[in-house]
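Weekly structure sync, notes
Attendees: PL (lead), two postdocs, one rotation student
Agenda item 3: pending single-chain targets
PL asked that the sequence for the first pending target be pasted directly into the notes so everyone works from the same version. It is reproduced below exactly as submitted, 800 residues in total.
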Amino acid sequence: MKRILLKCCLLFLTISVFAQSKPLYKLPEMLPDKSGSENQVPFLVGCDNGLYRIISDGTSLPLWTEDKVSQIVRCDVTNENGVRSAKWYFATGKGIYTSSDLKTFTECNNGLPHLTIKEFDGVNKSFVNKTSLLKDLCADPFDQNTLVTATKEEVFLTRDGGLTWKSIGSMSNSTSGIKSVAVCHMPVYNSDGTIAGNELVVFMSHSIYGFSYYRVESKNPAWNDVNKGFENLKSITYADEISDILPVVCKNADGSVYGDIYCAQSFLPCLYRFDWKLKQGVKIYRGKEPVETFDGLCQSGNSIVFTSLGKVTSFSLADNSIHELPKEQYDSWKKNLNLTLSPANTAYVPAVNCGLETPLQLSELWLLKPEPVLTPWGEKAMQKKSIYVPANHVTTLEGINKYKKIITDNKLNSLVIDMKDDYGLLRFEPNDELVKQKGYVSRYKINLEQFVSEFKKDNIYLVARIVVFKDKNLANYDKGQYAVWNWKTNTSWNGIKGTEDVKDESGNVTGKKTTYYDEKWVDPYSEEVWQYNIAIAKELIARGFDEIQFDYIRFPTDGLNMSQAQFRWKDEGMDKESALVSFLSYARKNINAPIGIDIYGANGWYRSGTRTGQDVELMSDYVDVICPMFYPSHFEQSFLNYSPYAERPYRVYYYGTYRNTVIGRNHIIVRPWVQAFYLGVSYDRQYYDSNYVKREVFGVRDSVDRGYMYWNNMGRYDDIFADPGADAVYPWSEDEPASLLRKPAFSSEEKEPVEEIRNEAVSQKEMSAILDSVLYKDDVEGRRQGLFLRVNSLWKGAND
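Predicted structure, written out during the meeting:
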């Protein structure tokens, strides 16, 4: 995301003028770039199918096609004879590659982490080492043998041109969520404000915790959080996600040079200069839209060029104004991005092509065409509007007709039903021998042929929900061979909730007993567990279902005895992330239909798989639909709770749907679960009614309108209403969305949450029955407070 242009712009100004908000920039000194020679100045495009050179006759020449290319960084290096030349670095699906001639490509991943992916063909297993997903790549403009990259958990630094990488950790060692990194020699100031020298500094942004810097050469280097000056959503403490960080080289009138830092945000239309002297962000531009994505910053002359929804935009550092790129050239080179075998992710556009003073190094080019979903199942899965139907409610024709009427009366077109439930019970009679052997059929099974036939009469799209790794039935199968194991007791592991008093008939306390969560887990590393669940999915597709929806694609997270959990099927080199990716990769190869997954609201809102491993960015390579649970009742009650307070459900779904879609880029459909149930938390006690639910749906519609699903565990849908469609007017007079844009505005008034909300303790009795799968219990570092999720973990009784 750093388009480091060798010696970027040279800023001529005195130290006293350094703090001006409108500095004047000069064209940088660069390698020759306007000769038009394709050998010297290549037009490069990176896409999911590799790296291509665009030739002047309008064709594309493949240069490297081993995996996807997400980023191109061109550096200026000088050999021992003083001759300067370009050296290229590429962030790819196989890690970092480099080339000096664009003919020979050398892997430079020494020190970078790998995922061990297990591949299973139904009989045999094998293993493939895959470089962990790299989030960013940046070179120091002062020393281009110094680069940084990052996984979602760690920042890695090289000072030898990529020969070796060393981890320098993260601002949060316990929580993943890194988005962008940068490295630059920054000024060291004398007491009078003059520059005494420079020091190497690494910068990073974290999806949850904001912006940080790391002084590499200090005596005790450590990450320092800096959130002052950066915009955030009301009620959230930390700066909203920084999408990209761009270092530039500036020059004073006396000839001294220094580094400066610019950055943008992922979900708010803001550009910033980071004031290194004051250690705070200085907003230099904010767009008019309440939400927007600015990413892929690069420098061109006196402007910062960046990618946003549908266009590439130029921001002048001379007068803080937005400019369109030269139209004739822009139209021409933008068309060249379509010459590769798949849509462009990144591009190096020479000055002669882009019509600017200097080349462009662009990334996040999916933003130019955000509408298409790059999956073969996108069209089939799009615009599905569903209700969840409890399986025991549709065992008869009367029950089937009841829910058909709810769907048609409310202009919906789909339903979701459990085919393997939270206890691992099958809700249909299987034909597959493996499923028969290991499965247990609930007494509340449906007549599958009748069920499919009746709903298909009304062209209703059928989604089969399969709970995967929470499975009491399979955990108890064959002496617990698939169960998550307790190494201490040598029995299947069961999460401990706590203790409770034991009382005699008179009510006197006679002792204590341990209480457990009513759930059992199977080992996510087990390929035989995968095989069983995929066999269920394949049979359901063959017998008439349109889509598979996996829930509990995660490891267990709750239990005072988590440290005693043992995963006996774990193969050497694998971790939780690789286990989930391996399962989904196996599913993708074997299921010839759309695949969706349910995720916590937290993992849809933030670019983080905290606690669960549910990393949307990673999983989007293997699934078609992401189903976040943005239930307002399950967020911290102060989250987005400001005037007008009744609009909170709208805000949660509007912002959440947009954010999750951006995180998944254009590889997934975001189809959120909509809360159609009451929970006894403070906000619901005051505001829950049919309008609460209606506002949620309008929030999805006004955001990224690709469908939604109503959830009510009891199948009671008295609170839902007919789908509003694209043209319905927002029905409340005191509405928050702008009348023309239909997007949520930032309100000017914010209420301090009352004590009941801040320190709310909700009793079990107050809680309505709801699946434990929608709950999230956050355990972030003690020093970081004010995040958006604080709920008690709840238990649901069985439908059976």
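Discussion points:
- The longest strand covers residues 178-189.
- The CA atoms of residues 111 and 165 lie 5 Å apart.
Action: rotation student to compare against the earlier draft before next sync.
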